[in-house]
Specification:
Blueprint (H helix, E strand, L loop, with lengths): L1 H7 L5 H13 L3 H9 L10 H14 L3 H23 L3 H5 L11 H17 L3 H20 L11 H13 L3 H23 L5 H13 L3 H11 L7 H6 L1 E9 L4 E12 L7 E12 L5 E8 L2 E4 L1 E4 L1 H37 L1 H14 L13 E9 L2 E11 L4 E12 L4 E8 L1
Helix pairs in contact: 2-3, 3-4, 4-5, 5-7, 7-8, 8-9, 9-10, 10-11, 11-12, 14-15
């Protein structure tokens, strides 16, 4: 009992733990943020091993330490796999102890998005094949996660990872594979993302589909997409090959943060008077944070193109938590009824011990508000063809009301003919 009280005694949340790190990142002080996170005692606890690797990994990524970042992410993946293996056995601990006391293994979407960040790191290191492997791991993992559940998640296919893998195949000259992933991405945006997250099909994806379908001579498919999209002109495959290609990935805002919502209900154990207790049910809920910016455009020379929303992580997080609520409730109900029965039996023998056990239950029954705090709210992308040369690339950002709010210039970017260049920018 004393051990469990000790475990539940720390009132600070992960939000409190990460606040100063986030502030340093917002100021652009990436090394200072790394130093802070490396010395967080709470994150050094064994139950937070996954969380530490995820948070430190993203800070190292923003700090340009791509190899170190991937080493941290690989640690997180290895630990999540080990915890998942234990979880599949449905151990008694999972049913008797609240999630906040157990080792954190990440929300389903967090277990997936780590591979997106590993892909980004490989892109920045110029290792396209390795980035492609990480993109493909995402949807394989989503299928494995969903196979575990009787009540399936809405988040069963990641459209953006398919779109990104299509861009990578395109960059490597694998047109047929690019078309397949573009088509699968389009289907996922059309069938799932629009309905569940309000994310439309990216405009540039439509042009990429038309170009690759035309290059492969898929005339029936090409005609169908022309009719659907209402587009008559697009770059030819020859123009694509000869031009310099630029892919801009903008990570915008901050993912919703978790808080605890608690509910109480009196449950009778049998027909006898006073044979019952008040059960406490505590669940995590997400609180949305509004980004400072809503839209962006990229300009290179005379070419300007708006960025398309490709992944609304905020909405995916909200929906994913909603999907697993029933599973959390089932475990909470079982745990609470067992504790209630134990409290009743203890109180029959010693009333004071019964009261102490009831107080212990109140202390330890709480929602797990840990999360991968530093994820963005959404991801937006531009995929455009530009004149080769050493160019300045300007990103201009609009506020929520549409007003011009901020701009960032990447100076002297080498844009080579027949090569795809990737730029990544994060705003908070």
């Amino acid at each position: 009992m004393l051990f469990l009280i000790f475990l539940s005694g720390c009132a600070s949340t992960h939000f409190d733990t990460m606040r100063d790190v986030q502030q340093e990142l917002m100021r652009g002080n990436y090394q200072r943020a790394e130093d802070l996170i490396a010395n967080k005692e709470k994150l050094q606890q064994s139950k937070n091993e996954v969380l530490y690797a995820l948070e430190h990994g993203i800070v190292a990524h923003l700090n340009g330490k791509y190899t170190e970042s991937n080493q941290l992410f690989e640690q997180a993946v290895t630990r999540m796999e080990a915890l998942k293996t234990v979880s599949v056995t449905e151990t008694a601990t999972e049913w008797l102890v609240t999630e906040k006391i157990q080792a954190y293994q990440g929300e389903d979407f967090e277990q997936v998005i780590v591979h997106y960040y590993m892909a980004l790191n490989y892109l920045m290191l110029g290792e396209l094949h390795e980035a492609l492997v990480e993109c493909r791991r995402i949807n394989t993992l989503l299928r494995e996660l969903n196979d575990r559940y009787e009540h399936k998640n809405v988040y069963k296919t990641d459209a953006f990872s398919l779109y990104l893998s299509g861009i990578l195949y395109d960059a490597m000259g694998e047109v047929n594979d690019a078309f397949i992933d573009y088509r699968n991405a389009y289907n996922a945006y059309r069938d799932d993302y629009q309905e569940f997250y309000g994310t439309p099909v990216p405009a540039q994806l439509e042009h990429d589909l038309l170009r690759t379908a035309s290059a492969l001579g898929f005339n029936d498919v090409l005609h169908e997409y022309q009719q659907t999209f209402g587009i008559q002109d697009w770059p030819t495959q020859q123009e694509y090959r000869q031009a310099a290609r630029l892919v801009v990935i903008w990570e915008n805002g901050q993912i919703p943060y978790k808080i605890e919502k608690a509910y109480r209900q009196y449950v009778e154990l049998n027909d006898k008077e006073d044979a019952g207790c008040y059960l406490k049910f505590a669940f995590p809920e997400f609180v949305t944070r509004i980004p400072n910016f809503s839209q962006a455009a990229v300009s290179v020379g005379k070419t300007t193109q708006a960025l398309d929303l490709v992944e609304d992580l905020a909405q995916i997080a909200l929906k994913n938590l909603e999907d697993r609520r029933l599973r959390v409730m089932a475990k909470a109900a079982t745990r609470n009824i067992l504790k209630c029965a134990a409290e009743y039996e203890i109180e029959k023998k010693n009333q004071i011990l019964g009261w102490l056990f009831g107080g212990l239950t109140e202390l330890t029954e709480g929602a797990d508000t840990r999360q991968w705090f530093l994820l963005p709210a959404n991801i937006q992308v531009a995929h455009l063809l530009v004149e080769p040369g050493i160019k300045d690339v300007e990103l201009s950002f609009s506020g929520i009301g549409g007003q011009s709010a901020y701009r960032r210039v990447f100076e002297h970017i080498r844009l080579e003919p027949g090569k795809t260049t990737f730029l990544i920018h994060r705003t908070f």
